[in-house]
Amino acid sequence: MLLAYNCHQHLVFANHAIKGSKYTCPHCESKMILKKGEVLAPHFAHCKTTSNFCSKGETQAHYLLKYELALKLSRIGFHVQIEPYIAGIYQYPDLIINQKVAIEIQFSKITISTVKKRSKGLICNGYKVIWIIPNPYYDPLKHILILTKYERTFIDVNTKRLFTWDSKIKQLYMYQIYNFIGGKRYLALKTKLGIKDLEFMFRQHKVEDFTHDIKLKHNMIQRYINRCRYARSVNEPSLSIMYKLDLSDDWVCTYLGMVYPEQFYIQSHPIYWQLQLLYLFVEKSQKSRDFSKKIVLNNFYNKEINKDVIVSTLINKFKNSYSKMEYNNVQN
After folding, report:
1. Which residue from 12, 38, 82, 208 has the fewest beta carbons nearer than 10 Å?
2. Which residues, 6+ apart, have CB-to-CB distance to 6 below 8 Å?
3. pTM across the whole model
4. Pairing relation of β-strands 95-97 and 185-193?
5. Is the distance from CB of 292 to CB of 308 less than 8 angstroms?
6. What pLDDT is stored for residue 272 in this prediction?
């Protein structure tokens, strides 16, 4: 922690604190110890003997990044507040930049509902919110970004950007996401951010949407079908529909696998929901609300997605593809 109260109840930055003086946590009011050495940046730590729980118990990597960002942003002219108290929502965001942008650093896992609640509170108070999380796996040759359901919560849904920090090499990155292609995989472009590039993070206007229709490759679709088979269950939904409609692997790989921009918002693999819709169109026994129940949306910290709009758009777009599938010839 970078700030603590001194004996006069004044907030003191660790870099200006004096060893031997008394300090208390601004959040849980328990005793703090000043740590000022030659290796780590100055910071406050809770006494190990305290039994109080403090919601601001953060990792050392968290402290160091907060300190570095605050220091460097201040040097290039930004007004930086460290852990300011936001009245009304009882929150202490890591950094507030120019009274407009709230930066939250999250290196330990918290619930998705907590992420959304904290974000909503700041947004309702007029702040643009940026989250920074640990750097995930990225394949630079295929431009494939691997994100868990939890990690994708931190994508800025308005700009389709994700900001991450690599603690090993002390590097900030931005991922511009193009589309979600199923499983945990996203198509994305990775960019290093220097301190002078940080202003890019603070832009309020909506950027160009890079998502577009793409067709999954044959081997990618076959890999999905194989994973379904590994489940070894007669109730596996995708295989069940393939069996009922007498669809071959090759037919599915040829006619299905379109990835629309709306795929970004849903967790379901494109082959899964397209088989569900195909069955709906062929059997004409299900209603659109039955299909809607099968669709699970991704969570995003700064926007609630209208599921009805997404489902309606998927159905309309798939109808156009369905008319070209010549399903009546599938069994020939």
Report:
1. 38
2. 12, 17, 21, 22, 23
3. 0.81
4. unpaired
5. yes
6. 96
